């Protein structure tokens, strides 16, 4: 079974703190993603990575950065946490799968980290 | 206007009912369509995957895609209390890795 783990289920931080969210997958997946999930807004992509040391901005990268030093690990960094970054953060990983009409990926999600910034 | 629209619910049905969950979308380039189920305080898990138009059945679940209407559906037959969750539709143009998600529909199946 694919397993994606996240370092914390719940986290409380103060405004201005630097926050690290860690994600580890055990299936040798090339692709890894960070999303945030908010009521009424659904899942929004923050950053993703196709390979070690590679990263690409998603739809809402402002206020975040990422690090991928090893294939299995993808970190999300909040340089200076703000209250509007209070959210559920979800990590996902995927591998290319050949399907009818082309190649697409199935994403596997971790359990999420509920971050509260006070 | 959002690229993918999904009624947030909540949708409450009695046990054994047939449930219909739907999404509409605006990007005609979407080719791959997925349904994820998310239990409370858990990450989403893939339920169904469909390529292009047509139906796909897996046990009590049927996914339906109508590309001409830009409309996808998930049907759940003989619904159970364990089906109570939020259901997210997701889609992609293919050949890449980004998924576009709906906001999710919360379903509650009552005894």
Could you give a quick summary of the protein structure above?
Helix content of chain A is 0%, strand content 60%.
Describe the structure.
The complex is a heterodimer of chains A (118) and B (111). Helix content of chain A is 0%, strand content 60%. Chain A is built from no helices and eleven strands. In chain A, the strands form two sheets. In chain A, strands 2, 4, 5, 6, 9, 10 and 11 form a seven-stranded mixed sheet that branches. Chain A has a four-stranded antiparallel sheet with strand order 1-3-8-7, with no helix packed on it. Chain B has strands spanning 4-6, 11-14, 19-25, 32-38, 45-51, 54-58, 61-66, 71-76, 85-92, 100-101, 105-110. In chain B, the strands form two sheets. In chain B, strands 2, 4, 5, 9, 10 and 11 form a six-stranded mixed sheet that branches. A five-stranded antiparallel sheet of chain B has the order 1-3-8-7-6, with no helix packed on it. The N and C termini of chain B lie far apart (37 Å). The interface between A and B is medium-sized, with 30 and 26 residues.
Note the overall shape of chain A: globular
Radius of gyration of chain B: 13 Å
| Separate helix tally of chain B | 0
Low-confidence stretches of chain A: none
What distance lies between the first and last C-alpha atoms of chain B, to the nearest angstrom? 37 Å
How would you describe the shape of chain B?
globular
The proportion of residues in beta strands of chain A is over 45%
Taking the sheet with the most strands of chain A, its summary is: 7 strands, mixed
| Number of E-type strands of chain B | 11
Mean pLDDT of chain B: 92
Alpha-carbon distance between the two ends of chain A: 37 Å
Helix share of residues of chain A? under 10%
What is the arithmetic mean of pLDDT of chain A? 90
